[in-house]
Amino acid sequence: MSIGLNIEKINKAIESSASNFSRNVTLVAVTKTVSVDKIKEAIDLGVTDVGENRVQELVKKYELIGNKVKWHLIGHLQRNKVKYIVDKVDLIHSLDSYELALEIEKRASKIKREISCLVEVNISGEESKYGLNPSEVKPLLEKLDTLSFVKVEGLMTMAPYVENPEEVRKYFRALRQLSEDIKQLAFNNVSMKYLSMGMSNDYEVALEEGANIVRVGSAIFS
Ligand SMILES: *Cc1c(COP(=O)(O)O)cnc(C)c1O
């Protein structure tokens, strides 16, 4: 399969779900371990957003590709690495602690750049997963009240890998419900514009459950 055909197939699924929910959906092409040449090919084929899960790899590729695409940091972010990406990323999908938010605030304020973030939620409760437990999300959002450069714009989750993606529908539905609950609470500095959920194996189910960002890697590049 070619990158072009793969993207076409995903875009078709996005289009049909978007008309159901009347919303815009962003496809983040996950480019971890993908070469710069292949990424450029995907960009020529219409990819506008790329996602990396490691800071070093994002920085290296950013230097070669630049800001003709939007950059998403989708993997766990250590506090001591925030400084390398704060001037490059368009969306951090993995905000998972108050300490990390403070570090982003500190670095972002130095360059006067607002940083959009999603709170990563471990919605399935799997031990191996990063992210906050659902019950920890609202207490974190309350504390972000006083920050001026960290803008929370939604939630992100990674579902467990399963053969049959129907099995993870309940997690996507739960994340969406959590985001609806948070909307009602109208926290300062917080909007629930984005729901980042769905990967190669389960993006169709995620779209059906209201995702407006899907993060797809292997279904595009392999
Ligand atoms: C790797 C990765 C993806 C994409 O996974 P695929 O199964 O290759 O589509 C999405 N989100 C995160 C956080 C990832 O690390």
From TrEMBL:
Its cofactor is pyridoxal 5'-phosphate. The keyword S-adenosyl-L-methionine does not apply. It comes from the Bacteria. Keywords: Pyridoxal phosphate. The modification N6-(pyridoxal phosphate)lysine is found at K32. Transmembrane segments: none annotated. Residues 17-221 form the Alanine racemase N-terminal domain. GO terms for molecular function: pyridoxal phosphate binding. NCBIfam families: YggS family pyridoxal phosphate-dependent enzyme. Belongs to the pyridoxal phosphate-binding protein YggS/PROSC family. PANTHER family: PROLINE SYNTHETASE CO-TRANSCRIBED BACTERIAL HOMOLOG PROTEIN, PYRIDOXAL PHOSPHATE HOMEOSTASIS PROTEIN. Pyridoxal 5'-phosphate (PLP)-binding protein, which is involved in PLP homeostasis. This is Pyridoxal phosphate homeostasis protein.
